[in-house]
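Blinded run. Sample ID left blank on purpose so nobody reads anything into the name before looking at the predicted structure. Input follows.
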Amino acid sequence: MNTPQTLTPSGIWTATSWPEYLQIIEQPAYAKAKAYYYRDSMRLEMLPVGFDHSIDHGLVALAINLFGMARGLQLVLADNCSYRKTGVRECQPDLSCYVGDRAQQIPKETTIVDLDRYPAPDLAVEIAKTSLLDDLGIKRSLYEEIGVHEYWVVDVQKAQVIAYHMQPQGSHRIETSEVLPQLSIALLDEALKKSRDTDQSTVGRWLMAQFQTASKS
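Blinded prediction complete.
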């Protein structure tokens, strides 16, 4: 049996029963950990978040919100929200997004989103520096089975967004978002690269100009 004393919370998938998983994540020592559960295994992420990871997180959130404003979309963006299918799966993406009518389906007072009652988010985003291969592999399968429509992995080191259209039995790479209609993934890449040399407000103004121009064409 895994216990908080024997668990190694270092980004490793560890075979764990669902009751053990709940017992572990309720410990005060793991209050700030990101928690995932999939195929009878759990993963906790407790590594310090670097400045580069944090600014990419902020920029992608800004880009999604600006796009929604420019296009007049109903949109709810959540930061590090937990989604749970009891006894089976749990995830905590860096960012998640509901679009359109689904944006109002989750009550604002909700803590952990119960996937037996509410829909999975339309979009899930993981910001990846040390966890890239896991985000592209096991977590992608997890999000497929949860029912996320689209999944982005932000490669911090390469300043690149790897985007997938998700299906229950698989996923495939896309160059244009389907959840955020006509949003070019290459445009996000360009914004990330610009952010390496300038501040987020400047990049944000550039993004808004691009979105507004595209909406008029």
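Unblinding after everyone has recorded impressions. The chain is about 30% helix and 25% strand.
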